[in-house]
Amino acid sequence: MEKDVAITNSSGRKLHGVIAVPDSTHMPLVIICHGYASSTKSNTRVELARRLSQLNISSLGFDFTGCGESEGELHELTITQGLADLTAAFNSVKTIDRVDKNKIALLGSSFSGSVAVLFAAENNIKALGLKSPVSDYSQLSGVPLAAKRRQQNFFDDAAKYDVCKAAEKIKVPAIIVHGSEDADVPVMQSKKLFSRLKCEKNFEMIEGADHRYSNSRHFSQMIELFAGWFDYYLS
Prior knowledge:
Elements: E1 2-8, E2 14-20, E3 27-33, H1 43-54, E4 58-62, H2 79-93, E5 99-109, H3 111-120, E6 128-131, H4 151-158, H5 163-167, E7 174-179, H6 187-196, E8 201-206, H7 216-234
Parallel strand pairs: 3-4, 3-5, 5-6, 6-7, 7-8
Antiparallel strand pairs: 1-2, 2-4
Helix pairs in contact: 1-7, 2-3
């Protein structure tokens, strides 16, 4: 069963969340983070939450600042703001009685892949999944901001972080899934990121898949890889 929840970030803004909780106790939980300018309505969040529920794993998806039904403007969403939003979401799930606080995992997608790496390097989670993550914004020409003139603010903020260096600090099992035909985020970024991980790890390249896994077969394959990973490490 899914229900809407409200999360308050460190700035006092309300973030919209969707929590899916199977009918059991002491459940593990996966926080599902969407990509830039996406929302909890993304196909990945919806389908992975459904699949995890079948495995008796709960999930929380939330809209980052300026996305979906959350407060704020899209141009305010940077990696720094993303970390603050994710921290608020993480703290909120730890207050849910039926969630096993020692079995909270994290999935980051594209933009939120970099946020997830930085978060996992500094916080106590159980497992990490990264879907087509961005790890080096200097290689990208732009981000889908509503106000193009403000893109430089995003890149200036991103330049403060070394995602690959942060990956070296991650101690929990991590999987990276990336499409071989991703025209938005080069697959070489994930290969480099994977090489810097020192934890138990797996890299899965889906042949022919684009950034959005628009082919239904590629999409299903991606979902099953993450569902299987979380099921194994959260059971």
